[in-house]
Write a structure and sequence with these properties.
The complex is a heterodimer of chains A (370) and B (310). In chain A, strands 2-1-3-4 form a 4-stranded mixed beta sheet. In chain A, a hairpin with a 5-residue loop joins strand 3 and strand 4. Chain A has 14 helices and 4 strands. The radius of gyration of chain A is 31 Å and the shape is elongated. The N terminus of chain A is likely disordered. Chain A has 370 residues and is mainly alpha-helical. By secondary structure, chain B is of the alpha/beta class. Chain B has 2 domains: 210 residues, P-loop containing nucleotide triphosphate hydrolases (Rossmann fold, 3-Layer(aba) Sandwich), CATH 3.40.50; 70 residues, Alpha-Beta Plaits, CATH 3.30.70. Chain B is built from 11 helices and 13 strands. In chain B, the strands form 3 sheets. In chain B, strands 5-6-7-3-8-9 form a 6-stranded mixed beta sheet, with helices on both faces. Chain B has a 4-stranded antiparallel beta sheet with strand order 11-12-10-13, covered by helices on one side. In chain B, strands 2-1-4 form a 3-stranded antiparallel beta sheet, with helices on one face. In chain B, helix 3 runs parallel beside helix 5. The radius of gyration of chain B is 23 Å and the shape is elongated. The mean pLDDT of chain B is 90. Classes of the chains: A mainly alpha (370), B alpha/beta (310). At the A-B interface, helix 2 and helix 8 of A face helix 3 and helix 4 of B.
Chain lengths: 370, 310
């Protein structure tokens, strides 16, 4: 009798394999892997976390780019002296910076109102000109000064003092240089809040959290895996955006990669903690979405993402500086643009640590697994 | 040997108002398949989640193989396979990844391939969970419970919403688990499921057990294994009920929407007498049928309501 014939055949139960043993970190490793796979397979996540900040940086970077010798567009109202004005401007040694156009009075006024022209030149009686400009628009004020100088020089004015100017637009002081660290900070906040807060409530709503706590899974491992997945994503996010700034906008990164990674990592965990707190009790996606937006809204406005918070009244600056995103943005900005060492930023790091730490402790206290 | 599952005087009050469970006692032996049967909102899910250690009871005592949740939760979790009502597993993981994930939480899980094979999911092993049919999803939910090689399987309404073929497949899986020595506690509001699967069951209504025993026992307690249903063309008032009750071999009478139901021991004695008495009254039969008594009849008899009344 052959061995095969001796073996009983069971349709349902396959021959039992020797039991395998799982180590201490098996649950953590699988949770982390599952989370990363899910993120990878979610095209929306890839877009919002990676592509969207790049598009935002690209769009804003182009819109606010420092155009070499920003052209001054001037409307010259059609009239007896209009051609004269145009030729006088052309005589200027810096004539390439003017873009004069002879148009009707009506068109000049309309174009000026829409920001198409920075200045309107109205030939007045005799040889004179009348300037129409807007004192509230810096480019309009500049245009008036530059045009006036050019016209006066062409008319024979001599400069008594000898001066020379050197054009200097160094990387590091442009808008895009201000913007990229701000976008980094905002992105770390967005993905921390959504990546932790939304993911948790989603799992709670699907009763997956309850199902997990019905197993011997260590709850700490679960939270650790979630935080780890955020950190891994953070490295990619920060790397992509910085590389993009360097390649496309010739941004100069002064701080060390280690310092930047440390600040970004701390920021990521801070907002992970805040996200965890936001999601600690909510049962529905709808309610947590509102909460997350409510928490993030003040920081979008105040924390210096797109423009400096110096524009707000000085009296509220201490409040603004106490926000975690302000601390993160400031820390990223000084590290990236000025290479300030970490030690000099301890107060900002402490603000983030406190926000993250206190949120985390409160979240643990209030968190609902079921 | 201590009972597999035991609870005494279990109570659960939500927000100090809603009494979901009101003094429930259960003792389930190792190797039994025990069913909690009752309508929606009877307190079945609350009860099973307290037994699973996922909900705190307001008062009462729970033990699993003699251990309590307060003392020994970590260890007890190794013995339990749980399938909750309506857990939505992650759509973007494959079936195998999901099973491996759950397996990773246990010290000595079964091999995923073996579980996939047992639940007939081998072909779907690499499909995303989001692409599965209802029956396949439910089998996967049970697979995540079986992968830990549990001593007790908790199933909360495992077949609700499934097509007949998927239900049969699940029943078979439960039977095999029990045959291999496992203990099963399931909740259901399907009578046929309880009759086929459960060694013993408890009928739960308003958070209390109103009857307990084997399916055959419970049906026996009705008094008659047969039900004779009939309708006559005249509206007979209450007096008629006494008349039907006095017919030979009739154990009990119920009337609903003009349809009379008799619980009967021996239909061949009852039916001729019934026809006679109807003829004597000068009325005519509009409907007559007989059938085997079911758990549904037990439930209706005990509560005056149908199980699936919503």
């Amino acid at each position: 009798m052959s061995v095969a014939q001796e073996t009983p055949v069971s349709a349902i139960k396959a021959p039992s394999l020797p039991p395998r043993r799982n180590g201490r970190w098996s649950g953590y490793a699988h949770l982390l892997m599952a989370r990363m796979l899910e993120l990878k397979r979610e095209p929306e996540v890839v877009f919002w976390v990676f592509v969207f900040p790049l598009l935002l940086a690209l769009g804003l970077g182009i819109a606010f780019r420092n155009k070499p010798g920003d052209a001054i567009s001037v409307a010259i109202v059609d009239g007896s002296n209009a051609a004269n004005a145009q030729s006088m401007l052309a005589l200027s040694p810096h004539h390439e910076q003017f873009r004069p156009q002879i148009v009707s009075a009506e068109e000049a006024r309309k174009g000026f109102r829409l920001g198409k022209y920075d200045l309107v030149i109205q030939p007045s009686a005799g040889q004179g000109f009348e300037y129409r400009y807007d004192p509230a628009r810096p480019e309009s004020v500049l245009a008036k000064t530059e045009v006036n100088d050019a016209l006066q020089a062409a008319a024979g004015r001599k400069d008594i003092l000898s001066t020379t100017s050197i054009a200097s637009s160094e990387p590091g002081s442009r808008y895009i240089d201000f913007l990229i660290p701000g976008l980094l900070g905002m992105n770390l906040m967005n993905s921390g809040m959504w990546g932790i807060g939304f993911a948790l409530v989603d799992m709670r709503q699907r009763k997956l959290l309850k199902r997990f706590v019905g197993t011997p899974m260590r709850r700490g491992d679960f939270l650790l895996a979630l935080a780890s997945s955020r950190l891994i994503l953070m490295i990619v996010e920060v790397g992509l955006l910085l590389a993009f700034g360097v390649l496309f906008f010739h941004m100069r990164v002064m701080g060390s990669v280690g310092t930047i990674a440390l600040i970004a990592g701390l920021g990521s965990l801070t907002f992970g903690g805040v996200g965890l707190l936001t999601a600690s009790r909510a049962q529905k996606i709808e309610s947590v979405s509102g909460l997350i937006n409510l928490v993030m809204m003040p920081m979008w406005i105040f924390s210096g993402v797109f423009f400096s918070y110096e524009r707000f009244p000085a009296i509220i600056h201490p409040l603004i500086k106490a926000l975690p995103l302000t601390a993160l943005n400031d820390a990223l900005r000084t590290s990236i643009l000025e290479g300030t060492p970490l030690l000099h930023q301890w107060s900002r790091l402490l603000i983030m640590l406190l926000w993250g730490g206190i949120s985390f402790l409160l979240a643990l206290k209030w968190f609902r697994w079921t | 040997m201590p009972a597999a599952i035991e609870c005494r005087d279990l109570r659960k009050t939500y927000d100090g108002k809603v009494e979901a469970v009101r003094g429930l006692n259960l003792q389930i032996q190792a190797g039994e398949c025990f069913g909690l049967l009752g309508p929606n909102g009877a307190g079945k899910t609350t009860t099973i989640e307290i037994l699973e250690g996922l909900l705190q009871p307001t008062s009462g005592h729970v033990s699993i193989f003699g251990h309590t949740w307060q003392e020994n939760e970590r260890e007890m979790r190794e013995w339990l396979g749980i399938s909750l009502q309506e857990t939505r597993l992650s759509d973007k993981l494959t079936v195998r990844e999901t099973i491996e994930l759950f397996a990773s939480f246990y010290r000595e899980p079964r091999s995923s391939d073996e579980v996939l094979g047992q639940l007939q999911l081998t072909e779907k092993a690499d499909s995303w969970v989001g692409k599965l049919s209802g029956g396949q999803r439910q089998r996967l939910a049970v697979a995540t419970a079986l992968v830990c090689n549990p001593k007790i399987l908790f199933l909360d309404e495992p077949t609700t919403g499934l097509d007949p073929q998927s239900r049969r497949q699940l029943w078979e899986i439960i039977r095999v688990f029990q045959r291999d020595g496992g203990t099963v506690l399931l909740t259901t509001h399907y009578m046929d499921e309880a009759e086929r699967l459960c060694d013993r069951l408890a009928i739960v209504d308003h958070g209390q057990i109103i009857a307990e025993g084997s399916p055959a026992d419970l049906i026996d307690r009705l008094g008659g294994h047969h039900v004779v249903e009939f309708a006559v063309n005249q509206d007979l008032n209450g007096a008629a009920t006494a008349l039907w009750r006095s017919l030979p071999s009739v154990e009990s009478v119920r009337e609903e929407n003009g349809l009379v139901e008799l619980n009967v021991r021996e239909p061949h004695l009852t039916i001729p007498a019934l026809l006679d008495s109807i003829a004597k009254q000068g009325s005519a039969l509009e409907h007559l049928s007989t059938r085997q008594a079911s758990l549904e009849d037990v439930f209706v008899r005990l509560t005056g309501r149908h199980l699936r009344d919503d």
